[in-house]
Amino acid sequence: MKRMELTAKAAADLVSGRLEAREDLLIRGIQALDKAGPDEISFAVGPKYRDLVDACRAGVIILPENWPFEVKKPAIFVKDPYLAYARLAETFTRRPFEAAGISPAATMGHGCRIPEKVSIHAGTFIGDASTIGARTTIYPGAVVGRGVEIGEDCVIYPNVVIYDGCRIGNRVVVHAGTVIGSDGFGYARDGEAYVKIPQVGIVVIEDDVEIGANVTIDRAALGETRIGHGTKIDNLVQIAHNVVIGPHSVLVGQVGVAGSARIGRGVVVGGQAGIVGHVTVGDKVMIGAQAGIAGNVRPGEVVSGTPAMPHSLWRKVGVALKRLPAIIREVRDLKNRVTQLEKDST
Questions:
Q1: Most buried among 11, 158, 169, 270, using CB within 10 Å?
Q2: Which CATH architecture best describes the domain 101-312?
Q3: Active-site pick, 110, 121, 229, 241
Q4: Is 121 a residue of the active site?
């Protein structure tokens, strides 16, 4: 396959940057500052990388538009170097879809609707009456249940399990080992025993979602568990039944979201944070790592800690916690002095 290449002008246009280099300079890849060669592009997000920029051998370097130092090599100046890097990296690593068809070693159910332009690999199982969209790739060991709908341009990596009836939108990526549509954790107590509550809803994954490895998204007890358009979910996240997550949110590794929680648009949830059931987290909320969300969070708030509190307050609490042993000693000393003063006064 021919190696991808861009002119410096095309790269600058792609990232809406200001080019200070020959327009026809060819770029054939993207690499770190200390490893890039003359036909590659690299990037620096801020002035602390000045020494690496000065020593870099890249053909072109992406720099912040307010770069404070003299630049003696070809450069593209942009508002957000990290975003520019993401767009160029996507361009250089993108592989055009090549339809391999349906492997003879895949197991196909009855009544499936699958176009010619797909790649369904050996060892895949597709249940009855399922629908797969064009240009979708399903890797070995994936199990797609009965009546599942998977949209166009999706990638389902090895050993993913999608239970019956779930719906996956277009351009969705699901990484290895993830389970979508397993039963929600619902039981009613009968004395000392527990009676299982049937989980008869589904999971709906909207367009442009990416789900990391070993994520579990439970089907609804009734209705839907829904993941909104463009949301990104890291590895090892647990999402319980009837949760609704709004568009363009981010959940970092080991986050747990309990049943029927509502998470708004553009929410960022830090690693290992826990959200209890039946709460509402408003739009544009930021939740710090390991935070415990036990109640509703208003739109736009930034919270941290367990139980969660405004991040500014949590920083003060953190400082106080570090001083707690010294404070205890001071209080003990004060108590002893008061006791001695009381003795002396008698």
A1: 11
A2: 3 Solenoid (2.160)
A3: 241
A4: no
